[in-house]
Amino acid sequence: MSAGNPRALITGVGTVNPLGSSVPETWSALVSGTSGIAPLEAEWAEQLPVKMAGQVTADLSGHLSTREMKRMDRCGQLALIAAREAWKQAGAPEVDPERFAVVIGSAYGGLGSTLEQDRTLAESGPRKVSPHTLTRLMVNGPAAWVSIDLGARGGARTPVSACASGAEAIVQAAEMIRSGAADVVIAGGVDASVNDLVITGFSQIRALSTRNEDPQRASRPFDGGRDGFVLAEGAGVVVLESEEHARARGAAVLGAVAGGSVTSDANDIVAADPAMQRRVMQKALESAGLAAEDIGFVHAHATSTPVGDKLEGQAINAIFGAGIPVTSTKGHTGHLLGGAGALAAVVVVEALRTGMLPGTLNVEAVDPEVQLNVVTEDVRHLQPGTPSAGLVNAFGFGGHSVALVITGS
Length: 409
Description:
By secondary structure, the protein is α/β, with parallel strands linked by helices. 34% of the residues lie in helices and 20% in strands.
């Protein structure tokens, strides 16, 4: 993105995550300091070193038809529920289908269906494998289903950039709006990978918290005693519109994606490069035409890992100084992987709209190496004069770094 192009306005937001199946439910849980982390009750979890996660507890069949439940992976189901909420809030605008696009990122797509059908094949033979297997496991499935449901013919894209996928989707969508390639774009991220393989994989690299005895206090971004993240599932979605399109129909504007940046470390498949984290934030500011002092707060990526939170904290400090309020709502939700950055964008929109910044749950003592003004109370009221702009960070394995600048309405 480059400063001076038309703004990408936000006219709708939607989410389903461990805190609730809508934005109002999620917001209520966030500002009251509620955790969505719980013990895993599935039999397959008994043998695992980590026995907790952030799972969506809502009955999805109350939101989707029997046919949709049968044909779609859980990943697609979550994305469609969130997209429908966002679309409804936007007023289901009339738009030329060929100027209406979808960009929904995911780290693992339909991995749950892949594992499920592989077990079916091994245990029961090929005749028992679902005929919907291939379309359920596709990483592009969520974007495709949303485009089919809402009639978007301007492209259905799927960024796959690990835990930066959802945030990168929003950057891509905003670029489409600002370049004039689309009038309306539904954008976001989703993952539904709470399963034995993913939990085991992250456990093997010691990325997950092992506080099984106290799940609701396990995810603690920036806390001195943090020991890893908590795996979670969910989706976050925003509706972006060109200013001309939104104003012409009298849309209620929630905010805008003022800028964004995507970089790659080209360094290590797992370890983050703090220099590139600083760089992606600086480039996002430049794309928005803003300076560091124009940002009111930061929603950090901060997943609750010992190394990751420290490096990100130092990068934020280098760009914004130690005084800017910083939060990470992964203490409430756990880590949604590809859905994390998109949910953070929804949170920032609501924070700017209400003047309330949800805190970082479970912080007993901020790690002194983090060097940040971490919001540790349930909610911090943004003071008069606070810049009406927030920055979202999202980082992923593979050296993927994304930063978004979101401004108020």
